[in-house]
UniProtKB/TrEMBL annotation:
It is a multi-pass membrane protein. The chain crosses the membrane at residues 6-28, 58-74, 86-107, 127-145, 166-183, 189-207, 214-233, 239-257. Keywords: Cell membrane, Ion transport, Membrane, Transmembrane, Transmembrane helix, Transport, Zinc, Zinc transport. It comes from Candidatus Competibacter phosphatis. It is found in: Cell membrane. InterPro entries: ABC_BtuC-like, ABC_TroCD. Its main location: membrane. This is High-affinity zinc uptake system membrane protein ZnuB. Involved in the high-affinity zinc uptake transport system. Belongs to the ABC-3 integral membrane protein family. Gene3D superfamilies: ABC transporter involved in vitamin B12 uptake, BtuC (1.10.3470.10).
Length: 263
Protein backbone atom coordinates (compact mmCIF):
# COMPACT_ATOMS: atom_id res chain seq x y z
CA UNK A 1 0.00 0.00 0.00
CA UNK A 2 1.33 3.42 -0.94
CA UNK A 3 2.31 5.67 1.96
CA UNK A 4 -0.21 8.37 1.06
CA UNK A 5 -3.04 5.84 0.98
CA UNK A 6 -2.01 4.31 4.31
CA UNK A 7 -1.94 7.77 5.92
CA UNK A 8 -5.33 8.58 4.42
CA UNK A 9 -6.81 5.38 5.84
CA UNK A 10 -5.24 5.92 9.27
CA UNK A 11 -6.43 9.52 9.39
CA UNK A 12 -9.94 8.64 8.31
CA UNK A 13 -10.20 5.81 10.84
CA UNK A 14 -9.00 8.11 13.62
CA UNK A 15 -11.72 10.62 12.83
CA UNK A 16 -14.40 7.92 12.47
CA UNK A 17 -13.56 6.37 15.84
CA UNK A 18 -14.11 9.68 17.63
CA UNK A 19 -17.02 10.84 15.46
CA UNK A 20 -19.08 7.68 16.10
CA UNK A 21 -19.81 8.09 19.84
CA UNK A 22 -20.12 11.87 19.59
CA UNK A 23 -22.41 11.50 16.59
CA UNK A 24 -24.62 9.15 18.59
CA UNK A 25 -25.22 11.88 21.16
CA UNK A 26 -25.79 14.43 18.39
CA UNK A 27 -28.49 12.17 16.94
CA UNK A 28 -30.07 11.51 20.34
CA UNK A 29 -30.06 15.18 21.30
CA UNK A 30 -31.13 16.36 17.81
CA UNK A 31 -28.13 18.68 17.48
CA UNK A 32 -27.27 18.20 13.81
CA UNK A 33 -27.47 21.92 13.10
CA UNK A 34 -25.01 22.56 15.94
CA UNK A 35 -22.41 20.49 14.09
CA UNK A 36 -23.01 22.50 10.94
CA UNK A 37 -22.57 25.74 12.86
CA UNK A 38 -19.20 24.70 14.25
CA UNK A 39 -18.11 23.39 10.87
CA UNK A 40 -18.97 26.68 9.16
CA UNK A 41 -16.98 28.58 11.77
CA UNK A 42 -13.97 26.52 10.74
CA UNK A 43 -13.33 28.81 7.77
CA UNK A 44 -12.85 31.70 10.18
CA UNK A 45 -10.38 29.50 12.05
CA UNK A 46 -8.39 28.99 8.86
CA UNK A 47 -8.10 32.77 8.46
CA UNK A 48 -7.08 33.09 12.11
CA UNK A 49 -4.39 30.44 11.72
CA UNK A 50 -3.08 32.09 8.54
CA UNK A 51 -2.91 35.59 10.05
CA UNK A 52 -1.30 34.47 13.31
CA UNK A 53 0.98 31.95 11.57
CA UNK A 54 -0.51 29.07 13.56
CA UNK A 55 -1.14 25.50 12.58
CA UNK A 56 -4.43 25.69 10.68
CA UNK A 57 -5.99 22.85 12.64
CA UNK A 58 -5.12 24.67 15.86
CA UNK A 59 -6.72 27.83 14.48
CA UNK A 60 -9.88 25.92 13.59
CA UNK A 61 -9.94 24.25 17.02
CA UNK A 62 -9.65 27.60 18.83
CA UNK A 63 -12.39 29.18 16.72
CA UNK A 64 -14.76 26.23 17.13
CA UNK A 65 -14.19 26.23 20.89
CA UNK A 66 -14.94 29.95 21.11
CA UNK A 67 -18.11 29.58 19.00
CA UNK A 68 -19.27 26.65 21.14
CA UNK A 69 -18.70 28.71 24.31
CA UNK A 70 -20.58 31.69 22.85
CA UNK A 71 -23.49 29.45 21.89
CA UNK A 72 -23.73 27.98 25.39
CA UNK A 73 -23.70 31.44 26.94
CA UNK A 74 -26.35 32.71 24.52
CA UNK A 75 -28.54 29.68 25.22
CA UNK A 76 -28.65 30.65 28.89
CA UNK A 77 -30.28 33.97 27.99
CA UNK A 78 -33.33 32.14 26.59
CA UNK A 79 -34.29 35.12 24.44
CA UNK A 80 -34.01 33.29 21.14
CA UNK A 81 -34.63 29.67 20.19
CA UNK A 82 -31.55 27.48 19.80
CA UNK A 83 -32.08 26.91 16.08
CA UNK A 84 -32.27 30.67 15.55
CA UNK A 85 -29.00 31.19 17.42
CA UNK A 86 -27.36 28.42 15.42
CA UNK A 87 -28.50 29.96 12.13
CA UNK A 88 -27.13 33.36 13.12
CA UNK A 89 -23.76 31.99 14.25
CA UNK A 90 -23.36 29.60 11.30
CA UNK A 91 -23.88 32.17 8.56
CA UNK A 92 -22.14 34.99 10.40
CA UNK A 93 -18.93 33.05 11.02
CA UNK A 94 -18.87 31.60 7.48
CA UNK A 95 -19.39 35.02 5.90
CA UNK A 96 -16.88 36.65 8.24
CA UNK A 97 -14.30 34.05 7.25
CA UNK A 98 -14.90 34.65 3.53
CA UNK A 99 -14.71 38.42 3.91
CA UNK A 100 -11.58 38.24 6.08
CA UNK A 101 -9.99 35.92 3.52
CA UNK A 102 -10.55 38.55 0.82
CA UNK A 103 -8.34 40.99 2.75
CA UNK A 104 -5.40 38.56 2.73
CA UNK A 105 -4.19 39.73 -0.66
CA UNK A 106 -0.69 38.28 -0.26
CA UNK A 107 -1.90 34.84 0.82
CA UNK A 108 -3.23 32.20 -1.55
CA UNK A 109 -5.57 29.71 0.14
CA UNK A 110 -7.02 26.66 -1.61
CA UNK A 111 -10.59 26.81 -0.32
CA UNK A 112 -11.61 23.62 -2.10
CA UNK A 113 -9.26 21.52 0.02
CA UNK A 114 -10.60 23.00 3.24
CA UNK A 115 -14.26 23.00 2.26
CA UNK A 116 -14.39 19.45 0.89
CA UNK A 117 -11.34 17.85 2.47
CA UNK A 118 -8.10 16.44 1.07
CA UNK A 119 -7.71 13.11 2.81
CA UNK A 120 -5.13 11.86 0.32
CA UNK A 121 -2.81 14.76 1.31
CA UNK A 122 -2.66 13.79 4.99
CA UNK A 123 0.92 13.86 6.26
CA UNK A 124 2.63 12.46 9.37
CA UNK A 125 2.04 15.68 11.36
CA UNK A 126 -1.65 15.62 10.40
CA UNK A 127 -1.87 12.08 11.79
CA UNK A 128 -0.51 13.28 15.13
CA UNK A 129 -3.18 16.00 15.23
CA UNK A 130 -5.98 13.65 14.20
CA UNK A 131 -5.14 10.80 16.56
CA UNK A 132 -4.19 13.13 19.40
CA UNK A 133 -7.50 14.97 19.12
CA UNK A 134 -9.46 11.75 18.66
CA UNK A 135 -7.93 10.06 21.72
CA UNK A 136 -8.44 13.21 23.78
CA UNK A 137 -12.10 13.38 22.75
CA UNK A 138 -12.70 9.67 23.40
CA UNK A 139 -11.01 9.80 26.80
CA UNK A 140 -13.00 12.85 27.89
CA UNK A 141 -16.23 11.33 26.54
CA UNK A 142 -15.62 8.16 28.55
CA UNK A 143 -15.46 10.28 31.69
CA UNK A 144 -18.60 12.21 30.73
CA UNK A 145 -20.56 9.20 29.49
CA UNK A 146 -22.93 8.61 32.40
CA UNK A 147 -23.83 12.25 33.20
CA UNK A 148 -24.13 13.07 29.49
CA UNK A 149 -26.40 10.07 28.95
CA UNK A 150 -28.47 11.12 31.95
CA UNK A 151 -29.13 14.64 30.63
CA UNK A 152 -29.82 13.19 27.17
CA UNK A 153 -32.53 10.88 28.48
CA UNK A 154 -34.16 13.46 30.80
CA UNK A 155 -32.35 16.74 31.49
CA UNK A 156 -34.68 18.01 34.25
CA UNK A 157 -34.56 14.71 36.14
CA UNK A 158 -30.77 14.58 35.82
CA UNK A 159 -30.52 18.09 37.26
CA UNK A 160 -32.71 17.09 40.22
CA UNK A 161 -30.43 14.12 40.83
CA UNK A 162 -27.40 16.41 41.06
CA UNK A 163 -25.92 16.11 37.58
CA UNK A 164 -24.06 19.37 36.69
CA UNK A 165 -26.05 19.96 33.49
CA UNK A 166 -24.39 23.16 32.27
CA UNK A 167 -20.74 22.00 32.65
CA UNK A 168 -21.54 18.62 31.06
CA UNK A 169 -23.33 20.23 28.12
CA UNK A 170 -20.46 22.68 27.63
CA UNK A 171 -17.86 19.91 27.78
CA UNK A 172 -19.76 17.92 25.16
CA UNK A 173 -19.92 20.89 22.80
CA UNK A 174 -16.18 21.46 23.23
CA UNK A 175 -15.49 17.82 22.36
CA UNK A 176 -17.52 18.16 19.18
CA UNK A 177 -15.50 21.27 18.34
CA UNK A 178 -12.23 19.35 18.75
CA UNK A 179 -13.38 16.51 16.50
CA UNK A 180 -14.54 18.95 13.83
CA UNK A 181 -11.15 20.65 13.91
CA UNK A 182 -9.18 17.44 13.46
CA UNK A 183 -11.59 16.11 10.83
CA UNK A 184 -11.19 19.15 8.57
CA UNK A 185 -8.40 17.47 6.62
CA UNK A 186 -10.43 14.31 6.01
CA UNK A 187 -13.82 15.41 4.67
CA UNK A 188 -13.66 19.21 4.84
CA UNK A 189 -15.59 21.92 6.64
CA UNK A 190 -18.82 21.48 4.68
CA UNK A 191 -18.99 17.69 4.98
CA UNK A 192 -17.76 16.92 8.50
CA UNK A 193 -21.24 16.96 10.03
CA UNK A 194 -22.24 14.11 7.72
CA UNK A 195 -19.49 11.90 9.17
CA UNK A 196 -20.84 12.65 12.63
CA UNK A 197 -24.49 12.02 11.82
CA UNK A 198 -24.82 9.42 9.05
CA UNK A 199 -22.94 6.49 10.69
CA UNK A 200 -24.76 7.14 13.97
CA UNK A 201 -28.12 7.26 12.21
CA UNK A 202 -27.34 3.99 10.43
CA UNK A 203 -26.25 2.34 13.69
CA UNK A 204 -29.38 3.41 15.54
CA UNK A 205 -31.60 0.74 13.99
CA UNK A 206 -29.41 -2.14 15.18
CA UNK A 207 -28.10 -1.05 18.58
CA UNK A 208 -29.49 -2.66 21.72
CA UNK A 209 -27.87 -0.17 24.10
CA UNK A 210 -26.30 3.33 24.01
CA UNK A 211 -22.82 1.84 24.24
CA UNK A 212 -23.62 -0.56 21.42
CA UNK A 213 -24.81 2.26 19.20
CA UNK A 214 -21.64 4.28 19.87
CA UNK A 215 -19.39 1.33 18.99
CA UNK A 216 -21.41 0.43 15.90
CA UNK A 217 -21.36 4.05 14.72
CA UNK A 218 -17.57 4.07 14.96
CA UNK A 219 -17.39 0.80 13.04
CA UNK A 220 -19.68 2.05 10.28
CA UNK A 221 -17.67 5.27 10.08
CA UNK A 222 -14.45 3.28 9.60
CA UNK A 223 -16.17 1.15 6.94
CA UNK A 224 -17.31 4.31 5.15
CA UNK A 225 -13.74 5.64 5.13
CA UNK A 226 -12.40 2.43 3.64
CA UNK A 227 -15.19 2.13 1.08
CA UNK A 228 -14.94 5.80 0.13
CA UNK A 229 -11.17 5.62 -0.40
CA UNK A 230 -11.59 2.51 -2.54
CA UNK A 231 -14.25 4.23 -4.65
CA UNK A 232 -12.08 7.33 -5.01
CA UNK A 233 -9.14 5.32 -6.30
CA UNK A 234 -11.33 3.09 -8.46
CA UNK A 235 -13.24 5.85 -10.25
CA UNK A 236 -10.97 8.87 -9.65
CA UNK A 237 -13.57 10.78 -7.62
CA UNK A 238 -12.96 13.37 -4.85
CA UNK A 239 -11.95 11.42 -1.74
CA UNK A 240 -13.81 13.43 0.93
CA UNK A 241 -17.20 13.43 -0.82
CA UNK A 242 -16.67 9.76 -1.71
CA UNK A 243 -16.35 8.92 2.00
CA UNK A 244 -19.60 10.78 2.72
CA UNK A 245 -21.41 8.99 -0.12
CA UNK A 246 -20.11 5.67 1.20
CA UNK A 247 -21.58 6.53 4.62
CA UNK A 248 -24.87 7.44 2.94
CA UNK A 249 -24.84 4.12 1.07
CA UNK A 250 -24.40 2.26 4.37
CA UNK A 251 -27.29 4.25 5.83
CA UNK A 252 -29.57 3.34 2.92
CA UNK A 253 -28.49 -0.27 3.24
CA UNK A 254 -29.28 -0.24 6.96
CA UNK A 255 -32.72 1.21 6.22
CA UNK A 256 -33.80 -1.81 4.19
CA UNK A 257 -32.47 -4.38 6.66
CA UNK A 258 -34.77 -5.23 9.58
CA UNK A 259 -33.38 -3.93 12.84
CA UNK A 260 -34.25 -3.07 16.39
CA UNK A 261 -33.12 0.21 17.91
CA UNK A 262 -32.41 1.13 21.50
CA UNK A 263 -34.03 4.54 21.09
Amino acid sequence: MDDFLARALLGGVGVALAAGPLGAFIVWRRMAYFGDTLAHSGLLGIVLGTVLNLNLQLGVAITCLVVALVLVLLQRQRRLATDTLLGILAHTTLSLGLVALAFLETVRVDLTAYLFGDILAIGPIDLYWIWGGALLALGALAGLWRPLLAITVHEELAQVEGVPVFPVRLAFMLLVAIVIAVAMKVVGILLITSLLIIPAAAARRFARSPEGMALLASGLGCAAVGLGLWASLRWDTPAGPSVVLAAAFLFVLSSVVPGRSWR
